[in-house]
Design the sequence.
């Protein structure tokens, strides 16, 4: 799975997810086994992130410079 995904469906969580926004995924092999992704959403109150259905996101590849910046800022 990519380290970054873009939200393509926020119907069930419009306050927590922004449609079209790039999110960094957090490692969670158990979640992935259940077709879920762990990421930090707009709430940001849970440092370990929240689980969302993988179908709400599309994995993306970012240019190396953008990836470095996003990894450094924790976004």
Sequence:
């Amino acid at each position: 799975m990519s380290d970054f995904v873009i939200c393509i469906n926020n119907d069930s969580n419009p306050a927590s997810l922004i449609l079209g926004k790039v999110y960094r995924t957090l490692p969670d092999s158990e979640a992935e086994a259940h077709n879920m992704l762990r990421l930090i959403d707009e709430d940001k109150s849970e440092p370990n992130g929240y689980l969302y259905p993988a179908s709400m996101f599309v994995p993306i590849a970012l240019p190396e410079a953008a990836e470095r910046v996003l990894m450094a800022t924790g976004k």
About this structure: The mean pLDDT is 89. The two ends are 17 Å apart (CA to CA).
